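The protein record filed below.
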Amino acid sequence: MISSNNTRLVIRLGQMMSRASSTQGTTNGYSTTTLKLIKNTNRNIHHQNLLSSLRESHSGQTHRPNNQTASHPDNGDDQVVDYDIVIVGGGVVGLTLANALASSRAITDYDYKILILDSQDLNQSKEWNLEPDRWSNRISSITNENLNFLEDIGVYRFIDQTRTNPVERMQVWDGISDARIIFDAVSEPSNNQLSQTVPQMARFVENFNLQRALLRSLDQKVNLSGDSFVKVLGSTKVLDISPDLRSDWPIVNLQNGMKFRARLLVGADGFNSPVKTYSKINSTGWNYDSKCLVGTLELEPTSFNHTAWQRFLTSGPLGFLPLSDRHASLAWSTKPKIAAGLKSLEGPTLARVINACYRLPHESVNYLLSRISSHSSLQPIDSREIESEIDWRSSDQVNGLPKHNLTNFEDELPPRVLDVRMDSVASFPLKMFHADHYVGTRLKSPPSHLSSDSSQNNDETFRAGESIRTVILGDAAHVLHPMAGQGLNMGLGDARELSRTIEIALENGQDIGGLTALRNYSRSRYLSNHLVMSTVDKLHKLYSVDNSPLVWLRSVGVEVLNEIETLKKLMIGRAGGTRATRTSGLNNNENFNDSMIKKKKLFEEDEDGKVFDRKVWSRVGEAFEGIERARNLVEGLSKLGLETLKTKLQKISL
């Protein structure tokens, strides 16, 4: 008996056959295109029958998603409902993955059941709206590559473009030496397909604007019956996750009593991910002794506000993200005491401090911030004292101070900040952690005919891992310093690659929850993400010191780099006192190369030990050994006087 799903496939086959070109080569009276369609449809029907039998082995009932975003469960029954893919996390990354899956013909043709869960009320997120002059403090810079991806999956058109702003230039400079590097969109190698009047290297978008677009896009992705390809359940907190005793499918238990069993369970649920906890995936990293202060800035009106600014102060980078001709977003990474002192200021006073930190010499900035951080919450800083200090240090008697109102310096400083919306000001702690794996695995049990003490149990075959049908992405997999604005872009890249991995697995007839299929996702994303995170971490540490020789070296490097357009293009193309802790391993004295060796070992214990080619790992190891040697050399040289260092370098150049 042919199921209703198979009937739809046969009908669709007839429709496609009628459109097939008869001018192509034929075999036994059928066109090549028609034969290919018949072959694919037979494979689809076989897969549907297999899928149905697997579902029936778990539950006698089926549950079809509808096109409504549900904030409450459909019923309170204890019965477990089966889904092919369950995504925990309805943020930007989880919703992007859901949209990508619902846009894939390989997935929708199989009528896969997809569920997305989130503890927040996603109906409210779908109706998010702010006044034109009000802005969220959660802003992200989306690269052209990811903008194209969002357009490919039908999301971009739902983004409110009046609340986005293109980034056409980026200026980054050293707070001590003023060494500067400038990136222009015109120097970027871009394949951006979006229609633009002006080149852009990225686009600033509020996270809520993007989340709303993703939810509205899902509403439009429906099947022939008008049902949504993805069921969305908001206000549903995950209580715990447990393995099914009758199979290897994980069961998600919600606080409201509902239960869902997943062929593949996806964790897009943030750093404290329940899916990661269930999968027993450890993370390597550390907490920074820093917080990021965010908020909305009100500016002097300007007709051209498409430049992002970042000054590296010794206490952390001060970022200025343009939103409109009168507004920008603040992203200031600094010490916790400084952040607390800044939050205690009034809006106009904080605005003056921000202006001063972009314009004053670093000695004046350091003194100003030390005065702010010395006041406790019980003794807030006196605004008059701060403004008096700024006035004196901004006077004409202070040498080396670029004046904002002078034509020569207008291109070197951001627009003046008039006020800060204090109701938008918030801060969050900074950290860097990277999961040891992206795919949940467990050790294979030895065959029953082998005794527990058999020496054969040490064979690599039985030590190799097998999938527990879980995978993580986004902040669940990696968290990094926000200075480069790459956190969300990395998460979107994860979603793009995971959806592609699932699609390829289906086309090849693989189990989407199996390690054979999912390891392709790890191969593609893990090393790339790790390199970005390491680079950002090294930059953070490099610019956190004021040692004269090291400042001189980094400044020379930046100025040389600013003159090499090829390297700048590559950098833009890629830009889609800490204590080390680890939920297992890596201390503060362990270098990055040792960390990479540990990662390599962890990967080699997966399945057949060939997640990465050994030659590739060898080259990566050699590269990072070189980096470590260079860093050790710089640290050694930094103990010498500046003049001695210059003399040694001059001799080397001769």
